[in-house]
């Protein structure tokens, strides 16, 4: 446990200390006044902390100890798939042939890396049922945007540039309407029915000659599998639109169902979710997309191709939408995903889905007595409960989330999706043991009992964390984003 009054690096500072030694200068010294405009030259020395190397290491290790990550405890953050990232992925990603190469190197000298990219594409084609994959997008949301730009290019190439509407259900992930808007489309919302699924009649009523695409998050943000996909696909295709599958949470269906077999024209995957790339702190992601044969000419370039056992980048794609990311995607994350796929094998990936779904249903059924369950059918990899019962007792969902931290549990996603009041969106993932799931269930039940008998305990939580209850309004209106001594002291 980190200490309450953990000294920050400025407080450790002592004049004259230094943590490094530079070798003697063996090149001519630069005269700053000659090289730089006066406006850019510092007049007063920067106030930097002066510490030795050990103090510096303690500072950063101390900070990391105050952080909560998947290696600290259970992290059931709905829709984010905070699952364990196997160490073997790191070993492979650090192999010099992968980590010490340069993007401008002659492709003859990086055949292994290119083969890995090519083989990963082939695996992802098999997993999704799509015809071609690009590994370029650096996030799920960027994959969405890339696919929409491909749809747009396709419609334009067919003389249908008037198609400017993208239909997005109200149960979609928040990035879907955002990507559609950024890609220049008008977002048309379609409602969910009482079962939490897309209302197909409502869909029929919004489809028209301007429909460019339907974006479907499946399972949707309620963790429910959309049961009428084939019908939706028919409606959209008949109207000349394209079907987009948000496959960020593929661990719900992997090995059992494929977007390509359901009539989708494009799909994105989150390699930093389902395929164990680490993604805490918004780190590098990878959001490849897969498309059908007819859309392949529009893929971002370059594409990795194989010819006579040699691999190379193909830039000869006259209809390509262009590059969407510097170089070739986040290669390091792709190496980790490839390693994961190879260590799991086809049967292993199927098991991933089985356990992800089983774990989510186990927790959901264990909590349905104490918490309101707005949709009662079985869920897929995640589910949504409502804190409405507790709200009536004076305890908000935010309080429940804060209280969970006292049990060494990262709070789940809260107040999302918007279609459920006081929502808690819980995703256990397949990598957690039954003991961990039980600890979570017992903690949630204890919190529900506290809300009923002594709500103040929950309202004032957390008690066990380094930083206690924050002033949420001040934190968002007046965030302190850099070191300020007096504020750090009182926090
Ligand atoms: C995480 C997620 C996204 C966005 O992925 P990023 O890599 O965070 O951009 C999109 N859709 C769903 C369903 C997700 O869970």
From TrEMBL:
Transmembrane segments: none annotated. Its cofactor is pyridoxal 5'-phosphate. GO terms for molecular function: glycine binding; glycine dehydrogenase (decarboxylating) activity; pyridoxal phosphate binding. Gene3D superfamilies: 6.20.440.10, Aspartate Aminotransferase, domain 1, Type I PLP-dependent aspartate aminotransferase-like (Major domain). The modification N6-(pyridoxal phosphate)lysine is found at residue 273. Residues 353-453 form the Glycine dehydrogenase C-terminal domain. This is Probable glycine dehydrogenase (decarboxylating) subunit 2. It comes from Virgibacillus indicus.
């Amino acid at each position: 446990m980190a200490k309450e009054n953990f000294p920050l690096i400025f407080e450790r500072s002592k004049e004259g200390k230094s943590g490094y030694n530079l070798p003697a200068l063996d090149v001519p010294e630069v005269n700053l006044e000659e090289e730089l405009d006066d406006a850019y030259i510092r007049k007063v020395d920067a106030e930097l902390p002066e510490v030795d190397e050990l103090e510096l290491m303690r500072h950063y290790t101390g900070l990391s100890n105050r952080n909560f990550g998947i290696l600290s405890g259970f992290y059931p953050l709905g829709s984010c798939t905070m699952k364990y990232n196997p160490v073997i992925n790191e070993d492979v990603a650090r192999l010099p042939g992968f980590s010490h190469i340069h993007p401008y190197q002659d492709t003859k000298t990086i055949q292994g890396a290119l083969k890995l990219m090519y083989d990963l594409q082939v695996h992802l084609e098999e997993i999704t049922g799509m015809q071609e994959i690009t590994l370029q997008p650096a996030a799920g949301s960027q994959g969405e945007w890339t696919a929409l730009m491909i749809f747009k290019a396709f419609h334009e190439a067919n003389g249908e540039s008037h198609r400017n509407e993208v239909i997005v259900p109200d149960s979609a992930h928040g990035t879907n309407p955002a990507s559609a808007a950024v890609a220049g489309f008008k977002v048309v919302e379609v409602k969910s029915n009482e079962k939490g699924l897309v209302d197909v009649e409502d869909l029929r009523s919004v489809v028209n000659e301007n429909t460019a695409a339907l974006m479907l998050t499946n399972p949707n943000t309620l963790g429910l599998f959309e049961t009428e996909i084939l019908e939706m696909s028919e409606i959209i295709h008949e109207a000349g639109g394209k079907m987009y599958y948000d496959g960020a949470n593929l661990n719900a269906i992997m090995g059992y169902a494929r977007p390509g077999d359901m009539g989708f024209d494009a799909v994105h995957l989150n390699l930093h979710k389902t395929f164990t790339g680490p993604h805490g702190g918004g780190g590098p992601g990878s959001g490849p997309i897969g498309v059908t044969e007819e859309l392949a000419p529009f893929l971002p370039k370059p594409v990795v191709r194989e010819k006579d056992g040699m691999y190379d980048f193909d830039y000869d794609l006259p209809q390509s939408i262009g590059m969407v990311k510097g170089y070739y995607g986040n290669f390091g994350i792709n190496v980790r995903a490839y390693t994961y796929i190879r260590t799991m094998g086809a049967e292993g990936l199927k098991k991933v889905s089985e356990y992800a779904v089983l774990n989510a249903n186990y927790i959901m059924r264990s909590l349905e007595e104490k918490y309101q369950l707005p949709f009662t059918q079985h869920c897929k990899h995640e589910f949504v409960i409502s804190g409405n019962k507790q709200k009536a007792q004076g305890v908000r969902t935010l309080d429940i989330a804060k209280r969970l931290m006292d049990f060494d549990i990262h709070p789940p996603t809260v107040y999302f999706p918007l279609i459920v009041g006081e929502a808690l969106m819980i995703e256990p993932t397949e990598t957690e043991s039954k003991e961990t799931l039980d600890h979570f269930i017992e903690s949630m039940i204890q919190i529900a009992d506290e809300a009923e008998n002594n709500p103040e305990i929950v309202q004032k939580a957390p008690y066990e964390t380094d930083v206690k209850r924050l002033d949420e309004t001040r934190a968002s209106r007046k965030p302190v984003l850099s070191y300020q001594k007096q504020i750090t002291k009182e926090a």
